[in-house]
Amino acid sequence: MIKKIFLTIALGLIFVGGLGVVSTMAETTTPATQVIAQAQASVQTTAPAATKAPESAKASVDDISIKTGIVSIAAHTGVAGFLAKDGWKSLFMISIGFILLYLGVVKDFEPMLLVPIGFGTILVNVPFAGMGEAPHGLLYMIFEHGIRNELLPLIVFIGIGALSDFGPLLANPRMAILGAAAQFGVFGTLLGVMALNLLPGFAYTLKEACAIAVIGGADGPTSIYVASLFAPHLLGSIAVAAYSYMALVPLIQPPIMRALTTEAERKIKMKQVRPVHPMEKTLFPLFVVLLCALILPSALPLMGSFAFGNFVKESGCLDRLSKTMQNELMNLATIFLGLGVGMQMSADKFMSLETMGILFLGLVAFSLGTAGGVLFAKAMNVVWPKNPINPLIGSAGVSAFPMAARVSNKLGLEADPHNFLLMHALGANVAGQIGSVVAAGVILAIFGY
Amino acid sequence: MIKKIFLTIALGLIFVGGLGVVSTMAETTTPATQVIAQAQASVQTTAPAATKAPESAKASVDDISIKTGIVSIAAHTGVAGFLAKDGWKSLFMISIGFILLYLGVVKDFEPMLLVPIGFGTILVNVPFAGMGEAPHGLLYMIFEHGIRNELLPLIVFIGIGALSDFGPLLANPRMAILGAAAQFGVFGTLLGVMALNLLPGFAYTLKEACAIAVIGGADGPTSIYVASLFAPHLLGSIAVAAYSYMALVPLIQPPIMRALTTEAERKIKMKQVRPVHPMEKTLFPLFVVLLCALILPSALPLMGSFAFGNFVKESGCLDRLSKTMQNELMNLATIFLGLGVGMQMSADKFMSLETMGILFLGLVAFSLGTAGGVLFAKAMNVVWPKNPINPLIGSAGVSAFPMAARVSNKLGLEADPHNFLLMHALGANVAGQIGSVVAAGVILAIFGY
Amino acid sequence: MIKKIFLTIALGLIFVGGLGVVSTMAETTTPATQVIAQAQASVQTTAPAATKAPESAKASVDDISIKTGIVSIAAHTGVAGFLAKDGWKSLFMISIGFILLYLGVVKDFEPMLLVPIGFGTILVNVPFAGMGEAPHGLLYMIFEHGIRNELLPLIVFIGIGALSDFGPLLANPRMAILGAAAQFGVFGTLLGVMALNLLPGFAYTLKEACAIAVIGGADGPTSIYVASLFAPHLLGSIAVAAYSYMALVPLIQPPIMRALTTEAERKIKMKQVRPVHPMEKTLFPLFVVLLCALILPSALPLMGSFAFGNFVKESGCLDRLSKTMQNELMNLATIFLGLGVGMQMSADKFMSLETMGILFLGLVAFSLGTAGGVLFAKAMNVVWPKNPINPLIGSAGVSAFPMAARVSNKLGLEADPHNFLLMHALGANVAGQIGSVVAAGVILAIFGY
Amino acid sequence: MTWMDNFMQATVIMCLGMGLVFLFVASLVVLIQISARVLSKYIEEAAVAAAAPSAASGGNQGAIVAAIAAAMKQHSSK
Amino acid sequence: MTWMDNFMQATVIMCLGMGLVFLFVASLVVLIQISARVLSKYIEEAAVAAAAPSAASGGNQGAIVAAIAAAMKQHSSK
Amino acid sequence: MTWMDNFMQATVIMCLGMGLVFLFVASLVVLIQISARVLSKYIEEAAVAAAAPSAASGGNQGAIVAAIAAAMKQHSSK
Ligand code: NA
Ligand code: NA
Ligand code: NA
User: Fold this and answer.
1) Three-point CA angle C11, C14, C16, nearest 5°
2) Per residue in C95-128, pLDDT tens?
């Protein structure tokens, strides 16, 4: 029922938007909107939809009468804004915002991110509200001081680090290789973008292609980080695609996994994991930093933040800081990160063929990552036939923690109700998190960042 | 007893301040302060009270001797600053700060805000401490990066949204009209300001008048938001008036309510409220945003922040974010908002007839809002005689949540010990919160913001 | 065991660093590093170690082939950076970072600060990672917007205020004098710096000397505050020295205390402390602010922040704000303060004779403070022989709360197992906290801040 | 600008302001009532559930009762 | 730059990228295994301790069992 | 500026500094004692209350005792 209301609002808005298109196309003004239109004459209807009143309006308070007051206020209502030229685009974007709220709350698609992004999308697209405008619009400030400088993605990474447990990976280090193989989701997509460029209307640059490909890493903050450096104008679409497909992992992965494996492979049981000493967990983030410093410094901002959070958690003597990172720091950064991403969801940036392409390519990226992980597991079984890997675990290498690991476990139980793959899959899962940061780092390194 | 000590400090400071006035008026220096005065000769006693040492002092450390050292330090003590020209004003403002602390802690006047404001007032007025000075004074930084850009009021609004429960309003939607009627506290005060301008010495501009009038909305962050845009120099007085009178609601409202109602009216029982579905609560903030976008985009920064917090709370799947908004985000923003407002409590801004006028007009605003709500409820009873409203509920429309609703309930119980008005009054109360944001939005819209 | 691994990493890095020195000294390139060296030719090996790739690299993505790609990535690995000229210095600093983590986690040296500082040290020194670079390096942003403007030390001070309990001092006000006497650790060290300047290679300026001397206050944020104003290039060494020696108080103080006291003195029992009314605790921070405003405004930023936190705690009606200050505000500020300090731990600032001098002078400062407190207590016993003070308490005046007070109690119990000095020592301890802020304020005042 | 001008403008702002506030709030009431009607079937169920003795679903009916009880207690203890 | 150029570059990036990702992860696995060997004595002790019925030390063995149990429960309840 | 100049200045700073620190702390002690005298009546009441066996008011007397006890325990367990 709530679904119906949500969708009614969204569709209603799209409908009114459609009316707006018709009316602007016909370039006619109905008598009912005559007064508004007159007022709009002074409001320069050609200005982009989401603009404040012009400066002139601010100065001329000398002569407010009831009539001019009503006219002036009416001219700056959202209704007037939506009926102005290009106003229907704002309305369309607002309905996108409502759809994101619907997906987050009703469909439970990563609501922590999609709700703030959806609200940001609504707020930034209201004409005359100026919430995305320099210098003091709330969303503008959040974007400018939190995202353009890559601050919030890094802070979210500190929080993710403090929430991550690398125990399953340490218990089963071989699984890490699957987290690398799944990065084919990133790099294969790069070729996919080039293929799409063959279609008329698509012409992504190499940098844009890379920003899109990182969606295949199945890691929201990494996608936002790379996009804010390589293609800020695509940030909104990329973030929405990344978080949406992460939530859709339980739908996207199973058919691919079933198609690429045999019943016998799905029944493979894996040997027990080894015990892990707490000291290993403490040292692990230091190894990651060290390795990153030695061979891939471009990934260090992301990986170092991640390792910092994880080390504070695993050090065992910094509970105060660790809890603050896991809760307050993480939640505050998430709220503002979402609102700031919403800022990039304006009509002129989102309503383009490019966005359609990104939504398609994001699906390709997740599929390639899943396939890459599964097929590489199968290849490993060919090369090292004793002690085989259940290829269902391969798909968990895309990260999308912990959904992908649960999917692996679920399909394993379907094949054999006594085969628990969860711990092994979680190992591949957290390795995938590191893998996608490495993949992003390689891309940054190649472009000299 | 603690009261005596507090007041002794404050009065003592005012007394010393008075001495300072006398001494500066007489332009004489007593022998005891001779050394200090000599030193002050180089410190330009004409400079504003709260200034740091001049640059020259920083450079000339070449030749510190015990004597010059003592003289230099003595010249930069607060004592020397207070005895300098206009120094008594700083002392007076510091005693105002102590009075605010006293009101907050001992009298329990909104201590969450008055204690930070009071401390800010004390700190910013200490001569030579430079806490309000660009670029690195703590209070300057808080004001510049938190209040001048309207950031903190909006963040506080997110927190208030996450703390608000619109259940009582949804259970009884008719009450919302009373929340509109009470906004006469805002707009009636506008005429009051104009009337006060007839007195010699008062000459508020229209923008200043509007900023003052918003005190009648009985909503602190809204007052601060509008004042920071329309009259930053009055921000301190307006914020202090708004929060003080909110705390004084249990004293201000009852006499007005009794005067405007008959015993019979106060005994009116109201019918039971209807049950509310959780879904309605989830949709309500979206309706508010939608309506605000359609007819009053100028109110969107405030209303959108408010609705964002409320939606996160009522979505039911974002407890992590909701708790962070209610606690950490709200408390951190409150601490800094208070300190930043204190920054505007400097002698030159506060010690003027304008401040007296604001304190008086604030009282007028609260009274007009109370009267407006009560009288409108009576008018509704005339127009729709069946199913009448107890006019005591009208006063809750000023917001000042939840004090005003408690006052309504209390007076209802006095008239009839079995008549519980609380739920109905809370409905008017939260409607008043929305009403005051709308009122502020209209004012912003008229001036083209 | 974990100790061995930590030290192995650190020593290993120092060893590789040493190899780097040799190789750069010999100016020869081994065949194995030939490709890297070729690439480095275009990377200007003379640039400072921690620099990003030159702009030219960003532009020339036109012609990536597998070969040039590998060469380019290899040229920007940390390995290449460490092997470049001055690269061994970065490696040395990274090993210092690991040593700080080791001291924090394994040796429990103030891990709340040393772990973030250590991580900051590691991250800022990785070549080509750019984490300390303007405008968007994470550590650069934290330092620039959190430490250079003195914001974070002041916010930490609010938190410390909200965590402090002045009950023991109020119960025993005479102890406060010992908190003053121990500030000889600050001012005596000033002469120590001058003495050290007589050695060749040392030439601290007066401002640098003052920044170093404040280490003797045994108060981290005060040290950082003064250093950020007087000698930002020494900030890293000063912060590390201050926090390390605070953690070492249980090792540094006892020998000095034993050497300066007789067995009879250590057995002195002190009379019971007086009861304290909660009201006194509420008024105390106001007295501190008042006194600071009257006689030492330069100390007000620190002292006012401290008193604000303490007043909110002791007001008894602001639990919400008080808890936020004690937890979220404090922890968030601590995390960023530590990372920001790490930013100043770059090779060119840290690897100098000056740092060695600071580490030595910090030890001198703590020793002088301890001795000052003990000897002054003995002097007080000579002047006022009845009601004597146990001189072991004097050492607690250095602050280093609460370690120094525990040391006093422990040595007292060694001399007489029934002699509990803890409450008295805590009084001197919190007085020492105020004393060191006053000492810092005097220094700021003399230099005209 | 004379005082009279200012006063007239203030009056205009008052009229516009009160009008728009009422318009806004009235629209909101209409929206609330429409959504309540649309959701009425569910609301009745919720009411029935709340009326049931178990009240395990923690609906806001219970909250209302609790709020009233708390308010009464607070009042009587003053 | 023609499409073919771009495509070639994308291929190059893919090869470099997959290579470096594998190199990184493989190095990490080696580091993990070295540290596991160095710490093996302690790990065995931990394993013994975890195998003991008391399991008071709260080692992560217990956590693994709990995680599996939780996962099973979650799965079956879906 | 010669070394001697610097040394003299450092000496001056030391004298001024120690003097001002003592002045500040001494003033603070005086203020504490004045306020204690003013509040003495209340303090005695508090002391009496704290001496009473119930000690329900949670005065800081109890806290002091607790602190000492805690300190003793900590010491003995080391
Ligand atoms: Na991944
Ligand atoms: Na209101
Ligand atoms: Na100290």
Assistant:
1) 110
2) 999 999 999 999 888 899 899 999 999 999 999 9
Nearest CB to D20: which of B275, B409, B438?
Answer: B438
b/e sequence F32-61, b meaning 16+ C-beta within 10 Å:
beebbebbeeebeebbeebeeeeeeeebbb
- What angle do helix axes D40-51 and D60-77 make, rounded to 10 degrees? 60
Structure-token pair, residue A276: 């892990």
Q: In this predicted complex, what is the ipTM?
A: 0.84
DSSP one-letter code for A384: S
Q: Where are the alpha helices (DSSP H) in A261-352?
A: 263-266, 278-295, 300-314, 319-324, 330-342, 347-350
Q: What three-state secondary structure class fits E23?
A: helix
Omega within 30 of 0 (cis) for the link into B402:
yes
CA atoms lying within 13 Å on the CB side of residue B230: 27
Cβ-contact A439, A432 below 8 angstroms: no
CA pair distance B381, B392, nearest whole angstrom: 12
Using an 8 Å CB-CB cutoff, list chain C residues near B334: 321
Closest of B314, B305, B311 to residue B286, by C-alpha: B311
Does F55 contact chain C (CB < 8 Å)? no
Closest CA to C224 of C276, C163, C135, C154: C154
Q: What tokens appear for B423 in the block?
A: 């739920």
Q: Spell out which residues of chain B touch residue A1, defining contact as CB-CB under 8 Å.
A: 279
B317:A94 CB<8 A: no
Contact B183, B362 (CB under 8 A): no
∠ at Cα F20 (F19, F24), nearest 5°? Answer: 125
Pair B176, D73: CB distance under 8 Å = no
| Residue burial B206-217, b: 16+ Cβ < 10 Å; e: rest | bbbbbbbbbbbb
Please report, as a single letter, which amino acid is at residue A28: T
Cα separation, B266 vs B378, in Å, equals 11
For residues B325 and B76, the answer to whether their CB atoms sit within 8 Å is no
Q: What share of chain E is helix, strand, coil (3-state, %, to 5)?
A: 85, 0, 15
Strand, coil or helix: A44: coil
Which residues are within 8 A (CB) of F70 and not within 5 positions of it... i.e. 6 or more apart? none
- For residue range B5-60, list pLDDT tens digits in order: 555 555 555 554 444 444 444 433 334 344 344 444 444 333 344 444 444 444 34
State yes or no: pLDDT of B306 exceeds 80.
Answer: yes
**The one-letter amino acid at C296:** L
Closest CA to C396 of C177, C192, C104: C177
d(CA C13, CA C79): 11
> In the structure encoding, which two tokens stand for residue A226, read together?
């790379």
B250-260 burial, b if ≥16 CB within 10 A, otherwise e?
eebbbebbbeb
Query: How far apart are the CA of D29 and the centre of ligand 2, in A?
Result: 17
Ion ligand 1: residues, CB < 5 A: A 217-218, 399, 432, 436
| Omega of the bond leading into A135 within 30 degrees of 0 (cis) | yes
Looking up tokens 């206050």, which residue turns up?
C217
Place of tokens 């008080």: C322
> Which residue of chain F comes nearest to B69, CA vs CA?
F16
The candidate with the shortest Cα–Cα distance to B53, out of B76, B86, B74, is B76
The mean per-residue pLDDT over the stretch A2-30 comes to: 49
| Cα–Cα distance, B436 to B303 (Å, whole number) | 10
Peptide bond into C402 cis (omega under 30): yes
Chain A residues whose beta carbon lies within 8 Å of the beta carbon of residue D17: none
- Nearest-CA neighbor of B156 among B221, B112, B242? B221
Per-residue pLDDT tens, chain F, 78 aa: give them: 678 888 888 898 999 999 999 999 999 999 999 988 888 776 566 555 555 443 333 334 444 444 444 444 444 443
